[in-house]
Amino acid sequence: MRNEADLPFFFGPDGELFGLYHAPASRPRLGVLMCPPLGQDLIRCHRLYRQLAQSLAARGVAVLRFDYHGTGDSAGESLAVDWRRCLRDTETAADELRLRAGTDRVVAFGARLGATVAMCAPAARFVEVVGWDAVLDGAAHVARLDHLQAALREDTGRFTRPRGHADVAGQWLGFDVSDRLRSQLSALRIDTPAVPTLFIESARSPSSAAATRVVALDHPTTWDDLGRLESAILSHPLIHAVTTHLEAAA
Q1: Higher pLDDT residue, 73 or 158?
Q2: pLDDT band at residue 115 using 50, 70 and 90 as cut-offs
Q3: Which of 6, 56, 114, 232 is the most exposed place for a label (fewest CB within 10 A)?
Q4: Is the dihedral of CA 4, 29, 127, 201 positive or negative?
Q5: Structural domains of the chain, with CATH
Q6: Residues of 177-210 as b/e, b for ≥16 C-beta within 10 angstroms?
Q7: How confident is the model at residue 1 (pLDDT cuts 50, 70, 90)?
Q8: What does the alpha-carbon distance between residue 129 and residue 121 come to, in Å, rounded to a whole number?
Q9: What is the DSSP letter of 63?
Q10: Are 110 and 117 in contact (CB under 8 A)?
């Protein structure tokens, strides 16, 4: 039976954004906004985000999970996903969390592009961002997605013969992507985050090699492994690292 505090709801100016609030047992001093990644990463991280939210709430932290416009259970189609709208939705979600939790201290957690969104949304007024394998070089990330999409098109383990280019044009791993979003991501580059940021990195991940606040995990994360595309991303070391860090902050 679902706890009443964990019931889903819609919010935002037009009620288009989906969220799920995880309330702690006592009045919280800290809130955590869980900024999701995009595309296949969002699907694969869903279970981990839920586990992390429950772990934080059990430690007295208020948590809000949400979906950007055009993703998850929010309104809009995949082709409507726009980077600037993601930033605005993040700011709206941060304010919603402050209202529900009764605290102005909000930290953002995000995996991959979820971390990037949090770092690029100063109006959300995060006191800190905790980024897991954050994307700091948008052009390199787009190139990786294009490479994976090309490999997926010719994957004989999924298709009896290669799919035509026309069948997969404008997609990244099963999700439609607009030229606008492709251009926006290609232009992204973060050298120095404007918000205090703790980077949590999988082994051999190069994204924040120059960062000064880095927690390294023991094992690599299979983000770009086509053989595990349908497998959930789970990491107990990640959950432990985040809950330990934020429990101290709370």
Answers
A1: 73
A2: very high
A3: 232
A4: negative
A5: 4-137+191-249 (3.40.50.1820)
A6: bbeebbebbeebebeebebebbbbbbeebebbee
A7: very low
A8: 10
A9: E
A10: yes
